[in-house]
Amino acid sequence: MANPFLAPSDLPFGLPDTTRITEEHYLPAFEAGIAEQRAEIAAITAGPAPTFENTIVALERSGAVLDRVARLFFTLVSAHTSPEIQRIEAEVAPRLAAHTDAIALDPELFARIDDLHARRGELGLDPESARLLERTHRDMVRAGARLGPAEQQRLRECNAELSRLTTAFGAALLAGANAAAVHVTERARLDGLSEDAVSAAAAAARDRGHDGGWLLTPVLPTAQPALAVLTDPGTRAALHRASVTRGQGGPHDTRDTVLAIARLRAERARLLGYSDHASYVIGDGPDAGVTTAGTAAAAQALLESMVPAAVANAERELAELATAAGGPIEVSDRAFHAERLRNARFAVDDAALRPYLSVERVIHDGVFRAAGELYGLSFTERTDLPAYHPDVRWWEVHDDTGALLGLFGADLWARPSKRGGAWMNALVDQSELLGTRPVVLNTLNLVRPADGEPALLSLDEVRTLFHEFGHALHGLFSAVRYPSFAGTSVPRDFVEFPSQVNEMWLSDPQVLASFARHHATGEPLPAELLDAALAAQGYGEGFATTEYLAAALLDQAWHRLGPDEAAAVTDVVAFEQQALAAAGIALPLVPPRYRTTYFNHVFGGSGYAAAYYSYVWAEVLDADTVAWFGENGGLRRANGDRFRREVLSRGGAVDAMEAYRAFRGRDPEIGPLLERRGLVRS
Q1: Tens of pLDDT along 222-243?
Q2: Phi then psi for 480, rounded to 5 degrees?
Q3: SS3 string of 156-208?
Q4: What is the DSSP letter of 358?
Q5: What global pTM score does this model have?
Q6: For position 352, what pLDDT does the model report?
Q7: 3-state secondary structure 548-601
Q8: pLDDT band at 682 (very low <50, low <70, confident <90, very high)
Q9: CA-to-CA distance for 501 and 356, rounded, in angstroms?
Q10: How far does the chain reach from its first CA to its final CA, in angstroms?
Q11: How would DSSP label each residue in 86-134?
Q12: What is the C-alpha separation between 312 and 582, in angstroms, rounded?
């Protein structure tokens, strides 16, 4: 049978036909895709004198087979892996790194692009094409195109080894998370968990091969949601210990991998002419537009400016908890006492909210409803389309003219083959050049309900659904010519901006009234519960801000090391403690949102190395935008159309901050963020 990846899919939207694809197809397809693109590059460099069409556009068109196989394969790596998928990943990752280097460091290809770049003012290019030429040239320079042969060879070696190491980190983290699950054999130790959560834990234990009992599996962040409700201190302590010790000892230890990654990143940055990896990623020097922060110093300064007020707020909250608890508390007990104090202060009970937050209502009457009101979208489920796992669902997305925008998918439930967290990725990018519509996928890790039980959510899980759908909108609304600019192909510290803005509709009264209804009776969420939940949203902001800043500063600490400094670090845990203390954010009861050994954003190849600051950097834009919506009537179609036109549709085809200014009418202001985070007194 012919390899399904070697020709475009004949399914709607070019969706991969997973009914025909088996694991044995991936490695041959990667090999064929690499060979095809190398031949395409050779044809470019052997062609006549360089023009924009025969060089830049030809480069944009190249690599179709490789793109098809890579998009589905790396979706599986994150969402539905297997021993064979992991074996293939370990084999192919260094090959892909070498292939990327072969293109970026091709001297004949760079000579053509360099010639076009030097003559860019004479080419009569439209703005998007001119931007593509400028970005292609800049990215090749940043990739090492101007280095000498010896430096390029060492760069290739670093890239290949980093690809191997980040792959190994991700595999170890997934295995370690599964191994860290806490098996509980006495029902009383689960007191406080809702019945649907207990049923789900029992199902998880059965699925993992236990004869009985219940299984509590750590989610990716340090803070485990169950700690807020479990009444048994011993269970809380066991679950917290399982969370914070991931990657420290045993067969899934990640510490040596972390050290090797940090050293190689520092060495590579120095090879490329930067003082450290953070300066390379954020774009210090002549790399304007790589990020909106502009320099590593600017990102660091924002984080540091928030620390004193955040820590003061966190310490005030901890003092209140100790008073309420009648004495000092343990780190594993903080969330439990915080939830009790929150409930007492605001008369809110998350367990009482859950029956009103069923996943189907949240999706259809919440997430989709808001998109309909704001952007005129409608959604039609397609049950006839295949997917890589039975959990995946597909919806066609139309605008109010009936025009088909693309395909949206959702893969909601946690399983042992899926890494933790939540994310969006595109199986097909929008491109006028290639004639493709977007296929975007949201992947989450909600706890699957037991058979016959309703799928009920916490308020934080509802927020995650809205957040990830904000990324999906960024992909669905893309209206660019070149695939390099499609959807979320924007600076890393701009990516989270649209998704964070979309969270605002969770608490919009009109949207809430639509989705917050009892799963059995359809009764609306009682006003007193709703008012209490909304009033309590800002509670614990000191803790939330501090745990985030600790992780972001930890990321910067690892990646602001020069090669000699990185080589001198031998103890991951000690370095982490020293870095947090130096930043003034080492609070024993407020551990970082991610500790180093399970910081997948940074060490697992997720693209956030030296860029975890992006969430708060983008939140400056987000909070300022939420204020704009409030000033202009909120959930109004005209507001949505403006945001779509100026931001969501533009992708990377325009400068990110120019897009923001076109939308907002000015530069962003930090005041709304500081007020939201409780860092100023209103």
Answers
A1: 999 999 999 999 999 999 999 9
A2: -120, 160
A3: HHHHHHHHHHHHHHHHHHHHHHHHCCEEECCHHHHCCCCHHHHHHHHHHHHHC
A4: B
A5: 0.93
A6: 86
A7: HHHHHHHHHHHHCCCHHHHHHCCCHHHHHHHHHHHCCCCECCECCCCCHHHCHH
A8: very low
A9: 24
A10: 67
A11: HHHHHHHHHHHHHHHHHHHT-HHHHHHHHHHHHTGGGS---HHHHHHHH
A12: 16
Rounded CA separation 521/220 (Å): 34
Given this model, what pLDDT does residue 535 score? Answer: 82
DSSP 673: H
Distance CA 304, CA 290 (A): 22
Provide the pLDDT confidence category of residue 605 given band limits of 50, 70 and 90: confident
Specify whether the CB–CB gap between 428 and 411 falls below 8 A. no
Which CATH entry fits the domain spanning 354-527: 3.30.70.20, 3.90.79.10, 1.10.357.10, 1.10.1370.40? 1.10.1370.40
Query: Is the Cβ–Cβ distance between 440 and 397 less than 8 Å?
Result: no
CATH homologous superfamily of 4-146: Endopeptidase. Chain P; domain 1 (1.20.1050.40)
- 468 as an active site residue: the answer is yes
Q: Which residues contact 318 (CB under 8 A, 6 or more apart)?
A: 334, 587, 589, 590
Residue 492 pLDDT greater than 70, yes or no = yes
pLDDT digits (tens, 9 = 90+) for 29-50: 999 999 999 999 999 999 999 9
The label of the residue with tokens 């992909």 reads 475
pLDDT at 360 over 90: yes
Compute the mean pLDDT over every residue in the chain, rounded to the nearest whole number: 96
Residue 603 binned pLDDT confidence (cut-offs 50, 70, 90): very high
User: What is the distance between the alpha carbons of residues 421 and 429, in angstroms, rounded to a whole number?
Assistant: 23
pLDDT tens string 147-156: 999 999 999 9
> What is the percent of the chain where pLDDT is above 90?
91
In 10 A of CB 117, how many CB atoms?
A: 18
d(CA 401, CA 535): 39
At 179 the pLDDT is 93
Q: Which CATH number describes the domain made up of 296-327+539-676?
A: 1.10.1370.10
* 126 close to 53: Cβ distance less than 8 angstroms: no
Which helix (H) or strand (E) segment is 542 a member of? helix 541-559
pLDDT digits (tens, 9 = 90+) for 105-131: 999 999 999 999 999 999 999 999 999
**Residues 567-579: pLDDT tens digits?**
999 999 999 999 9
- Long-range pairs, 522-529, Cβ under 8 A, ≥24: 524/356, 525/353, 525/356, 528/347, 529/348, 529/349, 529/352, 529/353, 529/356
Query: Which residues does residue 398 pair with via DSSP β-bridges, in sequence order?
Result: 378, 404
Quickly list DSSP for 379-447: EEEETTS--SSTT-EEEEEE-TTS-EEEEEEEEEE--TTS-SS-EEEEEE--BTTTTB--EEEEEEEEP
CA distance 1 to 72: 19
Name the phi and psi angles at 424, rounded to 5.
Answer: -120, 140
Residues in contact with 649: Cβ distance below 8 Å, sequence separation at least 6, in sequence order: 477, 478, 479, 480
* Percentage helix, strand, coil for the chain under 3-state DSSP, each rounded to 5: 60, 5, 35
Question: Tokens 């530069």 appear where?
Answer: 667
Burial class (CB in 10 A: 0-12, 13-18, 19+), 615: buried
Q: Residues of CATH 1.10.1370.40 domain(s) within the chain?
A: 354-527
Residue ranges, CATH 1.10.1370.10, the chain: 296-327+539-676
Of residues 339, 373, 468, 646, which has the active-site annotation? 468
Where in the chain is CATH 1.20.1050.40?
Answer: 4-146
